[in-house]
Specification:
Layout: H1 2-15, H2 23-35, H3 40-53, E1 58-69, E2 73-84, E3 87-98, E4 104-112, E5 118-121
Antiparallel strand pairs: 1-2, 2-3, 3-4, 4-5
Length: 122
Amino acid sequence: MKKITILLCIACFLLLGYQLPTSAEVTQAQAFTQQVPSYAKWGQLAMKRTKEAYPKADIMDYLHIGRQEGPILTTEKFRLWLKEGDKEFGVNVTISFYKDTETVKEVKVEEIKRNGQRNKRR
């Protein structure tokens, strides 16, 4: 019964014009998924929270500073460069989340001032 079902599925694919992926296409898809960095989802959250804090600013650049892993919490750090009108400035975003569940504990958005001081925004 399983063989007949599989053969019918293959016949339907061929009749409808679908083709099974070639080994090169499978390899290319695997390479693409391997290129996505582990911090990508946290980078998206960093950009989202930055846009919430600075809705009129454009994000010009993005840098993953690093990850700190603890026994309970993991912290991802990012630096984003923004432009709002004629003003360009940096923002540090720190995301702390629980290691086991990846539930976000805290997101800090801090503007970097030219003199090294920081202003917090949430």
